[in-house]
């Protein structure tokens, strides 16, 4: 069981990494000093739940909490909702579906605004997950923002990814498009009492059969719990299996960091006097836009591609 | 860093349109607003406030139960050692009760005539006064 006091300290530790007050190492060390941290991270099972807006992700997460608690496991949930790109404000509403666990000290739920990030998670989600792990939770469930096809950052965070969809979002062509369907370890067709559920599940099964990995396709009605025990069985099987996601996750995260680093270099290079002179010539119509790009590219410090 | 606010709707009345309008207005003012839905108990509200580490809890009460609900919320915040979180109230609250609520530690009551701009200004002022500056506060630091 997790002490109530640890909830407060974990909550404040997450704020600290979220707002850039302290990095993960400092914050984790502080949690340890408060006596809440178990030795090292990496104990918790980290389950990602992703899918389009309104598919029932939060309601399904509520069912997962219920199931893990029945099994005697403590659960932390990190639920991400979108920030406005215009005002930076956010309404974080995922808790609404999970409030019945408020009296249970074995459950910790934290909402995060996505802030500037565009990959379906917030910039500090990974650190929040590590802190919850370090604080001693057995399972950490990460719920992404409602995603489209290319917000895949959950790949770098979760051990097991549940992609939740609903019936009749499109025909079978949707199931062979790249992106979201490639990262699923388990597919869930939620709201399975709605028309078209079987057809959606069949489309997904066909897609899965042609792939290399074995991916269960399940149907649930999260609202009343139908099909949730099958989801637990599938999750249990994945938890025991070898970590087929590890290489993919590391690749994804390294590419992301390399990209961030390249962007930082490029922005710094653009502040240089040489770059400023080129931009000035562009402004004065002495160069075309493409000329300016060709001149600036070699300054960015990365590999140069002819335009 | 954005101000983080919990908009809570305790008690048995099922009217959350006001709370949703408030949540939306605070969002448009650049705040991060946690909304927890209807029929929240004081325990649910305080659990959410602790885990979400909000700066402000805004409680909307239309049912007349404010003199029982606010004292419970204030006591639970103290019990969880998070009484640095500011509490404000709104809804239908009699003038005569406002001094009593403020004596309990409720920072401000916004009555039904308050504009959303008054609410935004009030919350920004209160967060400034409480010194819960999220961009500087040390996580879990002794207070």
Quick structural gist:
The complex is a heterodimer of chains A (307) and B (143). Chain A is of the alpha/beta class.
Written account of the structure:
The complex is a heterodimer of chains A (307) and B (143). Chain A has a 7-stranded parallel beta sheet, with helices on both faces. Helices cover 40% and strands 13% of the residues of chain A. Chain A has 10 helices and 8 strands. Residues 303-307 of chain A have low confidence and may be disordered. Chain A is an alpha/beta fold and 307 residues long. Chain B is α/β, with parallel strands linked by helices. Chain B has a single domain (4-130), classed as Cobalamin-binding domain (Rossmann fold), CATH 3.40.50. Chain B is globular and about 35 Å long. The model of chain B is unreliable at 138-143 (pLDDT under 50).
Task: Considering the chains and any ligands shown, give keywords for the structure.
heterodimer; A: 307 residues; alpha/beta; Rossmann fold; 2 domains; seven-stranded parallel beta sheet; 8 strands; disordered C terminus; B: 143 residues; five-stranded parallel beta sheet; 41% helix; 17% strand; globular
Q: In the CATH scheme, what's the topology name of chain B?
A: Rossmann fold
- The tally of structural domains of chain B comes to 1
Number of helices of chain B: 5
Q: How many strands appear in the DSSP assignment of chain B?
A: 5
Number of domains of chain A: 2
Q: Helix/strand/pairing class of chain B, anyone? A: alpha/beta
How confident is the prediction overall: mean pLDDT of chain B?
Answer: 89
Roughly what fraction of the amino acids of chain A lie in strands?
Answer: 5-15%
Main β-sheet description of chain A: 7 strands, parallel
Q: Strand pairing plus helix content of chain A: what structural class?
A: alpha/beta
CATH class of chain B: Alpha Beta
Q: Total number of helical segments of chain A?
A: 10
Approximate shape of chain A:
globular
So what's the CATH class of the largest domain in chain A? Alpha Beta
**CATH level-3 fold name of the largest domain in chain A:** Rossmann fold
Kindly report the greatest chain-chain contact and the residue count on each side: A-B, 38 and 36 residues
Rg over CA atoms of chain B: 14 Å
| N-to-C CA distance of chain A | 59 Å
Question: So, the CATH homologous superfamily of chain B?
Answer: Cobalamin-binding domain
- Name given to the CATH architecture of the largest domain in chain A: 3-Layer(aba) Sandwich
**Shape of chain B, please?**
globular
């Amino acid at each position: 069981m997790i002490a109530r006091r640890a909830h407060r300290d974990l909550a404040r530790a997450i704020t600290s990494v979220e707002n850039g007050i302290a990095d993960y190492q400092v914050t984790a060390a502080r949690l340890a000093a408060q006596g809440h941290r178990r030795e090292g991270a990496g104990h918790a099972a980290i389950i990602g739940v992703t899918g389009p807006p309104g598919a029932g992700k939060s309601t399904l997460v509520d069912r997962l909490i219920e199931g893990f608690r029945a099994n005697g496991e403590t659960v932390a949930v990190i639920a991400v909702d979108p920030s406005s790109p215009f005002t930076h404000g956010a309404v974080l509403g995922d808790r609404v579906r999970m409030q019945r666990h408020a009296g249970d000290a074995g459950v910790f739920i934290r909402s995060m605004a996505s802030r500037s990030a565009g990959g379906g998670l917030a910039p500090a989600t990974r650190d929040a997950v590590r802190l919850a792990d370090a604080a001693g939770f057995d399972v950490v469930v990460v719920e992404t923002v409602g995603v489209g096809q290319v917000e895949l950052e959950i790949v770098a965070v979760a051990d097991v990814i549940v992609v939740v969809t609903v019936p009749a979002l499109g025909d079978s062509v949707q199931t062979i498009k790249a992106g979201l369907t490639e990262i699923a370890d388990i597919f869930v067709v939620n709201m399975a009492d709605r028309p078209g559920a079987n057809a959606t599940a069949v489309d997904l099964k066909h897609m899965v059969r042609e792939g290399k990995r074995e991916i269960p396709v399940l149907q649930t009605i999260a609202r009343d719990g139908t099909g949730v025990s099958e989801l637990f069985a599938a999750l249990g099987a994945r938890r025991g299996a070898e970590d087929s996601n590890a290489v993919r996750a590391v690749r994804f995260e390294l590419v992301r960091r390399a990209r961030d680093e390249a962007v930082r270099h490029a922005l710094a290079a653009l502040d240089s006097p040489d770059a400023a002179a080129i931009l000035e010539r562009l402004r004065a119509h002495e160069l075309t836009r493409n000329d300016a790009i060709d001149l600036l590219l070699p300054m960015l410090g990365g590999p140069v591609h002819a335009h | 860093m954005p101000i983080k606010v919990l908009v809570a709707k305790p008690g048995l009345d099922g009217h959350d349109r006001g709370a949703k309008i408030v949540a939306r207005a605070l969002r448009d003012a650049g705040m991060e607003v946690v909304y927890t839905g209807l029929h929240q108990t004081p325990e649910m509200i305080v659990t959410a406030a602790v885990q979400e580490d909000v700066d402000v809890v805004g409680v909307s009460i239309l049912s007349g139960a404010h003199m029982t609900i606010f004292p419970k919320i204030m006591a639970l915040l103290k019990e969880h050692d998070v009484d640095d979180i500011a509490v404000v109230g709104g809804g239908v609250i009699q003038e005569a009760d406002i001094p009593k609520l403020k004596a309990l530690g409720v920072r401000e009551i916004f009555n039904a005539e308050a504009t959303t701009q008054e609410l935004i200004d009030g919350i920004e002022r209160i967060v400034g006064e409480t010194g819960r500056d999220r961009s500087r506060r040390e996580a879990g630091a002794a207070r």
